[in-house]
Write a structure and sequence with these properties.
Blueprint lengths: L3 E10 L3 H10 L8 E3 L4 E7 L4 E7 L9 H8 L2 E9 L2 H10 L8 E9 L2 E3 L2 E5 L11 E6 L17 E9 L5 H9 L3 E4 L2 E4 L2 E5 L4 E6 L2 H10 L5 E3 L2 E4 L8 E5 L1
Parallel strand pairs: 1-4, 5-9, 10-13, 14-17
Antiparallel strand pairs: 1-5, 2-3, 2-6, 3-4, 6-7, 6-8, 8-9, 10-14, 11-12, 12-13, 15-16, 16-17
Protein name: Glyoxalase-like domain-containing protein
InterPro entries: Glyas_Bleomycin-R_OHBP_Dase, Glyoxalase-like_dom
Pfam family, one: Glyoxalase_3
């Protein structure tokens, strides 16, 4: 089995965490309780899908270390911060990054506090980063979940809009040739033209940043959007939502 098995999650930088949470709820998503990175000033809300998820990341305490997030928000505003690839072994993912020519840093541990229904819990992860952070054309790392049961709760994976998973992420410009060469050498990834396919997830060029989300039923999805008073446009086989405060990119729901 390849070291990289698909997408783990997409990370979106948001300026106001609670306002972003409310926006995603209006979009018909169930949002987890807030989590906070231990020892850092950042916090998040997550939208758990069947095999991947969306992370809304913001600054909770600007007096603490935020890994450059506050500066990034001030410079670029809300939107895509990066992606996390899925792996069963962060050590193997680091080796795969190295073999692809991006270099591999030693895997590191990360934990965060999550306000679970029964009280605070501490999900734990091991992360692998490429040594050359720009090698893949965007910010990325690989995540090994050490406590998946703390995030994977059935009630958090049920969404009024019928969302089941992330299909594709459109970037505003094609990945450059050198980045595609690194992707092509990464175990578990393949190239299709100017797109990269990892498991069931596609990274592609588009007119604007857009997250493509699978839904079980477009009628239920549209009903949820109407209930949330969210402007949208429906076409055969899809519903499109323009960027909103708290999303930073467009959304496309596809059946």
């Amino acid at each position: 089995m390849p070291a990289i098995t698909g997408l783990d999650h997409v990370i979106l930088a948001v300026a106001a965490l609670d306002a972003a949470r409310d926006t995603w709820r209006r979009l018909g998503f169930t949002v987890t309780p807030r989590g906070r990175h231990i020892g850092w000033g950042t916090a998040n809300y997550c939208i758990m899908l069947e095999a991947d998820y969306i992370e809304l990341l913001g600054v909770l305490d600007p007096t603490q270390f935020d890994n450059g997030l506050g500066e990034r928000l001030a410079r670029d505003g809300e939107g895509l911060l990066g992606i996390a690839l899925a792996t069963r072994s962060a050590d193997s993912a680091a080796a795969a990054f190295d073999a692809a020519g991006a270099g591999g840093e030693p895997a590191r541990d990360l934990a965060r506090l999550l306000d679970g229904p029964e009280g605070p819990v501490q999900p734990a992860f091991r992360l692998a980063y490429p040594a050359r952070r720009d090698a893949f054309g965007l910010s990325l790392f690989a995540t090994e979940h050490l406590t998946p049961e703390l995030l994977r709760r059935p009630e958090w994976e049920r969404h009024a809009n019928g969302a089941t998973g992330i299909l594709r992420l459109d970037l505003p410009a094609p990945l450059a040739g050198p980045a595609l060469a690194v992707w092509a050498a990464l175990e578990g990834a393949r190239i299709d033209g100017e797109s990269v396919i990892v498991g069931g997830f596609t990274l592609a060029a588009g007119d604007q940043p857009m997250l493509h989300v699978a839904t079980r039923d477009l009628d239920s999805c549209e009903s949820a959007l109407r209930d949330g008073h969210v402007a949208h446009v429906r076409h055969p086989g899809e519903i499109r939502v323009p960027p909103l405060p708290g999303t930073g990119l467009a959304l496309r729901f596809a059946s």
